[in-house]
Write a structure and sequence with these properties.
The chain is of the alpha/beta class. The strands form 2 sheets. It has a 4-stranded mixed sheet, with helices on one face. It starts with 8 loop residues before the first strand and ends with a helix.
């Protein structure tokens, strides 16, 4: 087997802000870093079986700000996406309400540079159902 792993690699405008989001709010662990000038310029973060890489360009282009994550979505397949929604919102992460799409609970969040992350888990709940609708019908 030659190709073994794919890892999203995001350019970020503010490494400190991005590390706070991924590590403190989403629970990723910093496992590798490159610090040629005494600060992290590139890093690798892990959470369970998934990884992500971040890099802050040495000379950020002001025109890129707000455009970095435009149109990029990474979807993580999970055992229980709703548990992650509870975990993340308990830490104060703003997230839209989860919903069912394609037989999956979809929990979505944007990082500080606009990259969209979706955490999804299989469900038999009806397509288009929101978490609040589902909670009402089960209380």
């Amino acid at each position: 087997m030659n190709i073994q792993l794919t890892v999203p690699f995001f350019m970020v405008m503010d490494m400190t802000r991005s590390l706070r989001f991924y590590a403190d709010e989403l629970g990723f662990k910093l496992t590798k870093q490159w610090t040629p000038r005494g600060t992290i310029e590139w890093c690798w973060l892990d959470r369970e079986a998934v990884s992500i890489m971040l890099q802050q360009p040495r000379q950020p282009n002001a025109e890129q700000k707000g455009l970095l994550g435009a149109g990029v979505t990474i979807t993580y397949q999970c055992a229980d996406a709703l548990a992650l929604y509870s975990e993340f919102t308990a830490k104060g992460v703003y997230m839209p309400e989860p919903f069912v799409g394609n037989n999956l609970w979809v929990v979505s969040v944007k990082d500080p540079d606009g990259y969209r992350l979706e955490f999804a888990s299989p469900t038999e709940v009806a397509e288009g159902t929101t978490l609040s609708q589902w909670n009402k019908s089960h209380n």
